[in-house]
Amino acid sequence: MKPEIRKDYIQEKYTIIAPRRGGRPHDVDQAKAKALCVFCPPNIDQAGKVLLTANATRLPGEPWAIKVLKNKFPAVSPNNPKAYGYQEVVVETPDHLAEVENLSSQRIAEILSVYARRTKAITKDRKIEYILIFKNDGGAAGASLRHAHSQIFATQFLPPQLKDKSQKVQAYKLSHGHCVYCEVIKKEQRGQRLVFQDKNMIAFCPIAPMHNYEIWLMPKRHIDNITLLTPAERLSFAKILKKILVKINQLGLPYNYYFHQVINDEDQHLYMKITPRGSIWAGVEIGSGLIINPISPEVAAKFYRQ
């Protein structure tokens, strides 16, 4: 395959698919001793103020299933007018050695439910304009602690790239009469970038991925935030996410997953981006903003389907 420049579905973002530059690094983290982990059951009460405890999927012998903590070292907080917002930690299991892909689909669905409950609580603050929910797994992906956890980050302003995206999505709807991502779903569910789908959810590798093996997970129904997912949609979401993370584990790569929620923008279409961190940005990427990706999305999708 010859190198090919591809454009994002809606934004002015470009990726050069260049397979001959292939090769992927591996990242192995050294687990911290369980006795020192602030998220393990003996220590978690000292890790930060507990905002929520969820126990619907608690197993025999587990003291709890999921806990949400106020971040002890926040970059933003409601007490800081110069950096206003919220920053929370979602501890996904009391088991120090478990990863999300090791958890049951029901537990992963409950994690999504916890994200929804905290989204609903945070949006009661009328100052908040934007909520980012994300997970860093592995040191190269930004994780500082081994114990499985994700984070919720909310601010009173919309980051410029998200404002640009919202404006382009709205302009597309005005011009075409429907959501651009609803159109993307129709196209991708029939193509070679499709990975998994059921009646509720679809997973596919995007046409212009910024990261090796990047994959998107999206509800087929047009909803703008996670609070609107039905229980059946959450379970579908969880089952497909589990499959994806099992495959990323086979690659031996750290990863991030994240999704954006722009308050008061019903035109946005909720979706999760999952980005394995097998690529290192160098001079072209940093200098020009053009991304060179040696793994085509068609090759990545074939890997996930295997």
Automatic annotation (TrEMBL):
Classification via InterPro entries: ADP-glucose_phosphorylase (IPR053177), GalP_UDPtransf1 (IPR001937), GalP_Utransf_N (IPR005849), HIT-like_sf (IPR036265)
Pfam families: DcpS_C (PF11969), GalP_UDP_transf (PF01087)
Superkingdom field: Bacteria
SUPFAM superfamilies: HIT-like (SSF54197)
Cofactor binding: number and manner: Binds 1 zinc ion per subunit.
Residues where Zn(2+) binds: 37, 40, 96, 147
Annotated protein name in UniProt: Galactose-1-phosphate uridyl transferase N-terminal domain-containing protein
GO biological process, any: galactose metabolic process
Cofactor: Zn(2+)
GO molecular function, a single term: UDP-glucose:hexose-1-phosphate uridylyltransferase activity
Active site: 149
Coiled coil: none
Residue ranges occupied by any Galactose-1-phosphate uridyl transferase N-terminal domain in the UniProt entry: 81-159
Keywords from the named record: Carbohydrate metabolism, Metal-binding, Nucleotidyltransferase, Transferase, Zinc
Keyword Transferase: yes
Transmembrane portions of the chain: none
